[in-house]
Amino acid sequence: MVYLDSAATTMQKPRCVAQAAARAMQTMASPGRGSHRPADLAATTVFACREEAARLFGLTDPEQVVFTCNATHALNIAIKSLVAPGDAVVISGYEHNAVTRPLHAMGRVDIRVADGPLFQPRKILERFEKLVTSDVACVICTHMSNVFGYILPMDEIAELCACRGVPLIVDASQSAGCVPVDAGKWRAAFVAMPGHKGLYGPQGTGLLLCSAPAKPLMEGGTGSASALQTMPDYLPDRLEAGTHNIPGIAGLLEGIRFVSRRGAEQIGYHETTLSRRMAEELSKIPGVRVYEQDLGDRCRGGVLSFCVDGKDCEEFGQQLGKMGFAVRSGLHCAPLAHGTVGTLDTGTIRASISAFNTADEVARFVRAVALASK
User: Fold this and answer.
1) What is the reported pLDDT for 33?
2) Is residue 192 domain-shared with residue 302, that is, in the same domain?
3) Does the bond joining 194 to the residue before it have cis omega, within 30 degrees of 0?
4) I need a labelling partner for 315 at 20 to 30 A (CA). Which of 62, 95, 165, 244 fits?
């Protein structure tokens, strides 16, 4: 099978990721829960992962790195730390349900959408400039669209938020590991990301980078301050109730090391180069509409959406699956993005590249789309 669904999860991982997870299951206990060697090994691994993540993402203190189950978990903590019913919030027109559903569930939140045409960063920045006012509780913005691979102008959005004194939450679910993410430079209150996508860690892992006070989403044991009946008031313990996913964190540590060795920019260049080649070739097939742009690598990463005239996206994706190509079809849990671009009624077929895909796989995929579209 040719795997082109890395925007959902990177199934192809560095070998060391699985080895580290398996080793952790055999040798490690729970950090902070004992004075024996298995507990010490777990604690060392956990702190090493925090250090690697802090180094990669521009934080000075590893204890600002909080482990979560996934990006959705991280975003829920961030949103519920900064937003209350009755607040006004500005979001981009490309947000995932991991952002919009918590806001809608909260009730009475004034959600202001900074929408804008696909691959036109100047126009979306103008919308943010208009909407980010002193009465806004926070700005929540995806760094890269999980549907279209559109990289939003985060440096400029972050600078706008800092100048106007509005906290910023960044959803780096698609960008972490393939586009430089700098929480320190952005002065973001929170940056959320999964471990299982561009960081090549196991499923069930995620990170929340914290530069603002946070409210616990759960309460429970932390292995620290056990006499208190409230959660500790310091990070990361305040947000990490219960037993850690040590095999997942051990695997994530190796995934982050893999990204650090190769470099996020280099990985991103590889992914964008292949997806551009795919877009160019798919555009030559009669009836195939590709959501592409010509503004340079800065605006799109390795995620590509397309539609085929006269073909249902879900059925076409299933047909490609039977031909040996793993893609995703539909709304990709991001109806707001589809509404912004005009594909809400149809959805799209999404092919997403990872560091492990090759030019030969792209060529084979294009031939399969050409055959299936006839």
Assistant:
1) 80
2) no
3) no
4) 95
Measured between alpha carbons, how far is 334 from 127 in angstroms, rounded to an integer?
Answer: 20
Task: Tell me how crowded residue 269 is: count the other CB atoms within 10 A of its CB.
Answer: 14
Give me the CATH number covering residue 343. Answer: 3.90.1150.10
pLDDT digits (tens, 9 = 90+) for 75-85: 999 999 999 99
Dihedral sign computed on CA atoms, order 197, 202, 203, 208: negative
| φ, ψ for residue 324, nearest 5 deg | 100, 20
Strand-pair category, 303-308 with 288-290:
antiparallel
CB 157 within 8 A of CB 168: yes
**Apex 303 CA angle, 98 and 282, nearest 5:** 140
Q: Closest Cα partner for 29 from 37, 19, 39? A: 39
How far apart CA 371 and CA 374 sit, in angstroms, is 6
| HSE-CB of 310 using CA atoms within 13 angstroms | 5
DSSP tag of 234: S
Look up the CATH number of the domain holding residue 130: 3.40.640.10
Q: Say how many domains are in the chain.
A: 2
Tell me: the pLDDT tens digits for 262-292?
999 999 999 999 999 999 999 999 999 999 8
- Please indicate, yes or no, whether residues 109 and 237 belong to a single structural domain of this protein: yes
Which region holds residue 347: left if phi is over 0, alpha if psi is between -120 and 50, else beta?
left
Q: Give the length of the chain.
A: 374
Q: Cβ(249)–Cβ(67) under 8 Å?
A: yes
Q: List the domain range (segments joined by +) for residue 367.
A: 2-10+264-372
Q: Is residue 119 within 8 Å of residue 150, measured between CB atoms? A: yes
298 pLDDT more than 80:
no
CB neighbour list of residue 330: distance below 8 Å, 6 or more residues apart: 313, 314, 317, 347, 348
Among 366, 355, 356, 353, residue whose Cα is nearest residue 6: 353
Q: Is the pTM of this model over 0.90?
A: yes
